[in-house]
Amino acid sequence: MDQPKIERLLKLIQMMSGSVYYTYDQLCEKLGISRRSIFRYVDTFRQAGFTVSKVNGNVPRLVKMSSATPDLDKLVYFSDEEAFLVNSLIDSLDSTNNLKNNLKNKLSAVYDCTSLASYTSNRGNAEKIENLEDAIYGKCKVILRSYESGNSHTVRDYTVEPFAFTSDAVDVWAYDIAAGFCKVFKISRIGSVEFLEESWGHEREHRKREVDIFRMSGDTPIPIRLRMTAFAKNLLLEEYPLSAGFLRETEAPQDAPQACWLLETDIRSVYGAGRFVMGLSSEVRILEGEALREYIRSEVKEHLLEI
User: Fold this and answer.
1) Among 195, 190, 127, 133, CA closest to 156
2) Strand-pair partners of 226
3) Helix-helix angle 24-31:35-47, to 10 degrees
4) How far apart are CA 219 and CA 182, in angstroms?
5) Is 233 helix (H, G, I), strand (E, B) or coil?
6) Looking at the predicted structure, is the pLDDT value of residue 147 above 90?
7) Which of 197, 208, 239, 267 is the most buried (most CB within 10 A)?
8) What is the mean predicted confidence (pLDDT) over 267-293?
């Protein structure tokens, strides 16, 4: 790194930890560099072990720990068995939930000398979330590199304006510049996040659509009622944790002596629920939801003809 860059880096550290609070725009102005460069420096701080917090929405700060605060590794120590148990509990979370990776990364950062570190996954999703979060606060356009689309089954780049995360931190809401409307992008399918020099240009069009428990978005609610076995219920909770608030145990019909569970909710697209039901056709019954039935009929008919 050349001398001017080192000076800017040190100056940025001073400004982000001093008594005056600077927004991203003010940091860019005072240092004479772009938002993209600021975000690169902030990412460098994180990789070096600094904690970067957000104050009042758009003010990045380097957090200082009190000298009276004890080191975390002196508070708790995990034995091999305890580390394995903690890891197993974290692993019980949905595999696509980025909070799972964040928990593992934070624990491994403290316990890098214990067996817990060997169970941790890579920082891929955590880094993407941090970069997207910076772009949201900085109102900055980004390129989602090598995004794997589940609908078109293609891998390509998307230039977007990210503006919000879904409640479970699995997806990010962004305005797709080329398409001209807002979409949900699954964070685990993003190859990398690249900052652009441009600020948002379509903020008035940023709008989140409703997302159902199957992580599908849409404007029109479609009421469904499904009866399922305990096996199907457990799989549903593992893959879609937000379904827990819409499940209740119910009496089983005479032809199904085992315990049954009822799911009553509104979906926003038949695709997510349809995929779940078709994968467990012997374990799930549709009690309400004609649109869902029609979707499954058409899918089954099409695939049977292909066979």
Assistant:
1) 190
2) 263, 286
3) 100
4) 12
5) helix
6) yes
7) 267
8) 94
Separation of alpha carbons 148 and 156, rounded Å: 7
Looking at the DSSP assignment, which residues form a beta bridge with residue 165? 172
Give the burial string for 26-61 (b: 16+ CB within 10 Å, else e). ebbeebebebbbbbebbbebbeeeeebeeeeebbbb
**Which residue in the block uniquely carries the two structure tokens 């606060």?**
137
For residue 256, report the phi and psi dihedrals to the nearest 5 degrees: -140, 80
Helix ranges, the chain (H): 3-17, 24-31, 35-47, 80-91, 98-110, 124-138, 230-239, 270-279, 290-306
Instruction: Report which of 273, 295, 299 is spatially closest to residue 284, judged by C-alpha positions.
Output: 273
Tell me the one-letter amino acid at 125.
N
What is the C-alpha end-to-end distance of the chain, expressed in Å?
60
Going from the C-alpha of 133 to that of each of 29, 76, 97, 98, the distances in angstroms are 21, 30, 16, 13
Q: What are the structure tokens assigned to 99, written together?
A: 């909070």
Which residue type does 132 have?
A: L
Does 25 have pLDDT greater than 60? yes
Token pair recorded at residue 31? 């240092």
- CB burial class (10 A; 0-12, 13-18, 19+) of residue 268? buried
DSSP 251: P
| Residue 248: Cβ-neighbour burial (10 angstroms; 0-12, 13-18, 19+) | exposed
Buried-state track 115-151, b at ≥16 Cβ within 10 A, e below 16 = ebeebbeebebbbbbbbbebbbbbbbbbbbeebeeee
Residues 6+ apart with CB under 8 A from 137: 24, 54, 57, 58, 60
Share above pLDDT 70 across residues of the chain, in percent, rounded to a whole number: 75
Tokens for 250, please give them: 């119910």
pTM over 0.90: no
